[in-house]
Amino acid sequence: MRKQQGLSGDGDGEWDKWVDDSSVDHRGRPPLRAATGSWRAAMFIILIEFSERLSYFGIATSLMIYLTKVLHQDMKVAAVNSQYWMSVTTLMPLLGGFLADAYLGRFRTVLLSTVVYLLGLVLLAVAQLAPGLRPGGVSVPRVHETLFFVGIYLVSVGTGGHKPALESFGADQFDDGHAGERLQKMSYFNWWNCALCSGVLLGVTVVVYIQERVGWGAATVLLAAVMGCSLVVYLAGWRTYRYRVPQGSPLTPLLRVAVAAVMKRRLQLPADAGQLYEEDDGKKRLLCHTYQLRCLDKAAIFEHGGEVWSGAWHLATVTQVEETKLVVSMVPIWVATLPFGMAAAQVSTFFIKQGMAMDRHLGPHFVLPPASVFALAAVAMIATVALVDKVLEPCLRRATGAERGISVLRRIGVGMAFAVLAMAVAAVVERRRLHSSATMSVFWLVPQFALMGVGDGFALVGLQEYFYDQMPETMRSLGIGLYLSVIGAGSFLSSQLIAAASRLSSHGGRRDGWFGKDLSRSRLDLFYWLLAGISAANLGFYVLVATQYSYKQQTAKAGRVGADKDAAAGDVECVIAAAA
């Protein structure tokens, strides 16, 4: 019986000295646990996330204002352009995650994408500061508009590699097979989001203040300088990181399973699942067999009627089959969370636009910048994440005796419920604003921002952990990209919903409809009620899908089953992944 490193988590003996999770150190050797990974490495990675979010939200929350005030676009055109940009920015991580997992590796992907990100910020600064390029009055030079859009879309490309690779690279610093580090990783996603929200908070207050009082160009130069400094910090931690060597396209094994299952579709499955083929190459932990999507199990039939099946496209291991099942099972969850992404898209667009139309005076001399209202959501998210990590999770662990107090899918569902409430409250506040004879205070927006912040604290953190933890080990950057695509696809669907609602409510453009040239001639309250209804109906669908979901189950001891099942059968113990 081969001893499995780190599964006991007791920290004693030679097996606990080295990390045995297929990662390597900066010299390509098995990492020494005491000198690599864990919080000592994760802190470098969390710091660069702080600076990236500072830059991103310094741009994103003011984009609607820039498009309407500087480029003089109508509100509907600006909202569509803003949400298209958000869609691209949050869908690009699918490509970035694939490249990181398959070819570049996560460390190198972060490095290259940060350089692209910096290039985008430099182009924005040039467009906003160079004489002859800056817009003046109602006149906007064509070259300024071109450089501006090229710059923000380079930021999108940079974010596409940065976000999935960086977050998964940080989570890679914790060994799932070591009990202590596994608990640390649960907290990692919480504190990752605290750093993220801290960057958001400064981005929508300090950066936005500089944009309003000093100038857009000065704020962009500051963002570029901070991003450059964070790159230096990231490189400073290279000796402490645990690296994953890319293994080629992670989609190829999934295709092989599908092809093998189709070729053997007429074969009968063995009564004993232990007769299915499995092999331990020592490079990754094995997955236990499950009884969902059993048609895929036929890919792992090793021998049938005296005929031996072999070859990469004719035979798959149980682990490869189970990895394919995991990816297929994620599709309904992904679809069911899209309305949450649609609701989240309103925070940085129409919520900000509402703030522009309200009284933002704080005392006789200070006026709150419209985009700074977004800080309310960031503060609420930070408070929620800290409360969940330090109070709710420990209490639920003691009450249930489970390693995780609340399951990941339940956490996501709670966040989605808060998003429904936020849309309903936003509709009520907007209707009151429309019928108010006096200008309402911007603090009427506190409830809807706070509810979305709490929702993000539950749902976004849960989505990050779900798509990282439940993905196959070779696809974890792609998993983070899939999480981000929930927001991206949600933003895209929101822009399509805006276009459809505008066309129907304006009767083909013959009247203002729900989206006029300004808020006083619009009916955002009806749009918010529409989103609340869609989100509420979808929440029922999500609950149905989530209750049917089967979490990843790993083997506590990897062995060879099928071809050598006599040598290893009975030595395999299945453990449900921590997400449950």
TrEMBL record:
As for subcellular location, the record says: Membrane
**Database matches in Pfam families:** PTR2 (PF00854)
Give the source's domain of life in one word: Eukaryota
For this UniProt record, the keywords arranged alphabetically read as follows: Membrane, Transmembrane, Transmembrane helix
Species this chain originates from: Triticum aestivum (Wheat)
Instruction: Please give the family membership noted in the entry.
Output: Belongs to the major facilitator superfamily. Proton-dependent oligopeptide transporter (POT/PTR) (TC 2.A.17) family.
- Provide the topology term for how it sits in the membrane: Multi-pass membrane protein
Molecular function via GO: transmembrane transporter activity
Residue ranges of the TM segments: 54-72, 84-104, 110-130, 191-210, 216-237, 326-347, 367-388, 408-429, 449-468, 480-506, 526-545
Q: Give the main location.
A: membrane
GO CC terms in record: membrane
Instruction: For the region Disordered, give the residue spans.
Output: 1-22
**BP term (GO), one:** transmembrane transport
Q: Which gene encodes it?
A: LOC123126018
Per its record, how is this protein called by name?
Major facilitator superfamily (MFS) profile domain-containing protein
